[in-house]
Amino acid sequence: MQDQPAAALSPSRDGTARSSPIAGLVWAFRIHADGVPESLPVDRPIPFSQDGLLWLHFNLADARALQWLTPANLGVPAPARALLLSKDNYQQLHTVEDCVYGVISDLLRDVGEATEDTGYLRFVMTEQILVSGRHHALCAVDATRRALEAGHRVDSAAALLETIVEHVADTMDGIADRVAQALDGVEEKVLSDSTADQRQELGRLRRTCGRLHRQLSGLRIVLHRFEHKHLDDLKPALRLRAGKLAQRLDGLDHTIVEMRERSRLLQEELHLKIEEQGNDNIRVLSILTALLLPPTLVTGVFGMNTKGLPFSDLETAFLWAALLIVLSSLAAYLIMKRVGIIR
């Protein structure tokens, strides 16, 4: 679905309907009373007066869309509109005057694929309308759009928002599967004593787990708080099944935390193996130094420019000196072997 301007029939200040273009409208759906979704063409007027639920999704990076989202057009309380147009980057859910509004996190979408970067969906919903917006393309709302186009039924505004949150969990679950597969590959290389350095890959996986955990824990807290609010006065169409959604997120977050711990343990094991390899290299260098030290001493003695050096009058002096060099190295080797330095 291309991001392009649409025309809509919005209520004017005097209550009459007027046709006007809505810049920044990404897509629009009408959910009929039987739950059947209808995709509305964005290049035609959108009647607000019909029955059912209307979902309008905006590109908030478009300044003209911000100009259209006025109290007269939205018909929602001022705090809800203020949060919709704000740049708050923490998750929250509020209720006021039969209106639910808030901010939830989602993963950014790039060429049809979920990335590991975080974006935020802002929304305001009443019984008749759900207005949502984002500054960058998001995965969950796009998945919800495709589900509605495929005929997925929703019976209320709360059910539509629950569907979006479910797709948030599905997207993060997919990222978690990719992280788990990558961890399996790293673990196989670490356990097989591969010489490849996996520290950078493990660092990236731990960072991904940390991001997912922060998003999930924040959304869980928001849903738990919403569940414990006094919502008896809230209309049934706006009552989120926050407990059920939080339970789904609890299980997913538990999996993410386990993978983060697993990546940390793999990173520690990798560091131990790297230290062992470094210690082995230092040990080899130390042995070579010990073996070469006696021959160096012999050559140093015979290189002294003094009188009375042994073998100085023999024709075979070089051979005797070479033999001393070999014997000194052999003696050093036998001593280190007896001590246990060389296994």
From TrEMBL:
<keyword id="KW-0406">Ion transport</keyword>
<keyword id="KW-0862">Zinc</keyword>
<keyword id="KW-1133">Transmembrane helix</keyword>
<feature type="transmembrane region" description="Helical">
    <location>
        <begin position="317"/>
        <end position="336"/>
    </location>
</feature>
<dbReference type="GO" id="GO:0000287">
    <property type="term" value="F:magnesium ion binding"/>
</dbReference>
<dbReference type="InterPro" id="IPR045863">
    <property type="entry name" value="CorA_TM1_TM2"/>
</dbReference>
<comment type="similarity">
    <text>Belongs to the CorA metal ion transporter (MIT) (TC 1.A.35) family.</text>
</comment>
<dbReference type="GO" id="GO:0005886">
    <property type="term" value="C:plasma membrane"/>
</dbReference>
<dbReference type="GO" id="GO:0015095">
    <property type="term" value="F:magnesium ion transmembrane transporter activity"/>
</dbReference>
<keyword id="KW-0472">Membrane</keyword>
<protein>
    <submittedName>
        <fullName>Transporter</fullName>
    </submittedName>
</protein>
<dbReference type="GO" id="GO:0050897">
    <property type="term" value="F:cobalt ion binding"/>
</dbReference>
<dbReference type="InterPro" id="IPR045861">
    <property type="entry name" value="CorA_cytoplasmic_dom"/>
</dbReference>
<dbReference type="InterPro" id="IPR002523">
    <property type="entry name" value="MgTranspt_CorA/ZnTranspt_ZntB"/>
</dbReference>
<keyword id="KW-1003">Cell membrane</keyword>
<feature type="transmembrane region" description="Helical">
    <location>
        <begin position="282"/>
        <end position="305"/>
    </location>
</feature>
<keyword id="KW-0812">Transmembrane</keyword>
<dbReference type="Pfam" id="PF01544">
    <property type="entry name" value="CorA"/>
</dbReference>
<dbReference type="GO" id="GO:0015087">
    <property type="term" value="F:cobalt ion transmembrane transporter activity"/>
</dbReference>
<keyword id="KW-0813">Transport</keyword>
<keyword id="KW-0997">Cell inner membrane</keyword>
